[in-house]
Amino acid sequence: MTEPTEQQQRQWDEQGYLVLEEAIRGDELGRLQQAFDYCAAACKDDWLDGIAKGDSTATYYDIPNPLERDEIFINLVDHKSWFGLLQHFTGGETLFLGPQVRSVPPWPLSYTGWHPDVGPTNPLHIKVQIYVGDVARGTGEFGFVPGSHKIGSGPYERPQFQESMPGHITFPGKAGTAIMFNSYGWHTAMDNGGSVRKSIILIYEKRTPEKIKPEAFTAIEQYCTSRERRALFGLEV
Question: What are phi and psi of 106, to 5 degrees?
């Protein structure tokens, strides 16, 4: 498995993020794009019905139960480009919490504001965001405030405009780019004035007994044959 280089370890500790360019490429990327588009199209009518009924938001859309729709989404969870890094940062105790296979249509304002996902008393919480298509500047690219994951940093507040957040950087990138970040840090999706942004967000945490929910992944248990993968999905203590 991939171990972090000294430079990556230093950046992770000090800045709270890593950019993994070409984490997915070639035929694997093409296969992922095909599966994403197929599943999104198959679920689109239900999403539009939900918007009409007031049950769904129009600003983003997550494919429901993606792990049950195509094995390629399962294989991303312990992908060689980042799983070794996750295991290193969590001391070998990585637990997968869930995916968000997300389309973000153009909209005048982002669907979310600047925020951390959890506080520093929560076990280490890590996300990996994968760009399924090219994401140009101004098309909902990921934004992060380097160093904001550290205890004692800040204080931070949500600005009125995304680009007004002090100290932030943004991450346009090519399809197949993955961004790993410490979810204690302040982050957002920038405003999308361009095309549909397609990305997959994988959510992990350092294992604690109360977060293990094997019932959440029993539908894909047949794909979890190794002890390491069963532990990752909370199917084995």
Answer: -55, 140
